[in-house]
Amino acid sequence: MKRTGMRAALLALVVLLSSTACAGWGGGVGSGGANSINVLMVNNPQMIDLQRLTAEHFTKDTGITVNFTVLPENDVRDKISQEFSSQAGQYDVASLSNFEIPIYARSGWIAPLDGYIAADPAFDQNDILAPMTTSLSGADGKIYGEPFYGESSFLMYRKDVLQAAGITMPEHPTWHQVADIAARVDGAQPGMAGICLRGQPGWGQVFAPLTTVVNTFGGTWFTADWQAAVNAPEFRQATQFYVDLVRAHGEAGAPQAGFTECLNNLVQGNAAMWYDATSAAGSLEAADSPVRGKIGYAPAPVEKTASSGWLYAWAWAIQSASQKKDAAWKFISWASSKEYEQLVGKEVGWSDVPAGKRASTYENPDYLAQASAFAGPTKAAIESADPRNPGVQPRPAIGIQFVDIPEFPDLGTQVSQEVSSAIAGLVTVDQALERGQQLADDVAESYRSRAEGNS
Fold first, then answer.
1. What is the pLDDT of residues 123-151, one digit of tens each?
2. Longest C-alpha distance within the chain, in Å?
3. Contact call for residues 107 and 16 (beta carbons, < 8 A)
4. Which of 155, 239, 263, 341 could serve as 298's disulfide partner, Cβ 3.0–4.6 Å?
């Protein structure tokens, strides 16, 4: 995940979610008049395209003016957290990820969308990839968000380098097979590492890929009854494997390498393989990429599970306090529609389509003409992701590369600092995870206490 900086935004939720009852449907009316809505969103490039296209198309067709507040990711998460927890009603729609949406749904901060979906068959909810719908639903089974774009994870590798070494990538590689390949191609070209893996501290940096490794090795952060399992044998084995692999055959500067650094390493020929987000493929296959056409795409490596790719989405949700929910839904229906993808393809370019959410995208010949190298593997990765059952045992909360509780950004970030230190050789994996176990048990204890109090 290219997502960092959620820690500050979600720390406030720890207290709020533990002490606040569900918010009601009241609240103030957003500014801008009866036929306008206020949208608070992240400043990602595809969101900026949306902002630019809205007046000429959505407003022209519906008469609804959209007032955008566009902020960097860290800032927008802080502002959304403050706005939605207070139910001030200033903003009708916000861009949220599949991490926040189940949490916000439990608190009553966002409105269920099922009624709007049922009354809007043209939106075609069945076309939304099923794991996306699952990850954007609440514990009550209702849908609370619609994806704007999404991603999973897969293994990217230099086909020419493996071929020159006489290596065929398995159709469904295991992590041990990947480690063997990394050893064989390490140094295949001057300055080329066998693999690039994130080592940068952050729950959304090193622990995005590492938690998927933990899952498929049979580990979990917490058992179904809220027992911390960070120092359990399976979690230890997965983390030791990851640390050993990146130390032996990974990139230079691994303890500070994140998504961007690994992307640059693969593009510049400094790595033969990379396990990370499916969204990276667009950059690898860009017209000016020196590795365009040289990259193969394999499913996320596994050990004990059938699949192990993560799942992430930027999505739209309606604030419960909004007095303009009908207009808000019209905007969401348009922004996440098939028609909007067609509009972006024609006016911006097919490589800029917000993909990763609809099955029909991967049947569109115009899109496939630009994304044929990675479209199939991306769709397969997303469809195989199971946010409710990502490992070998039941989980207490939804999530693949994260545990969907408000404490996780802080917990994951603190433990990630220990793991990054292990990658740097400053501590052992055992030492890192013993500290992590203490932190995880502190979180788990509060959930066990709540469960006992409700029994």
1. 999 999 999 999 999 999 999 999 999 99
2. 66
3. yes
4. 155
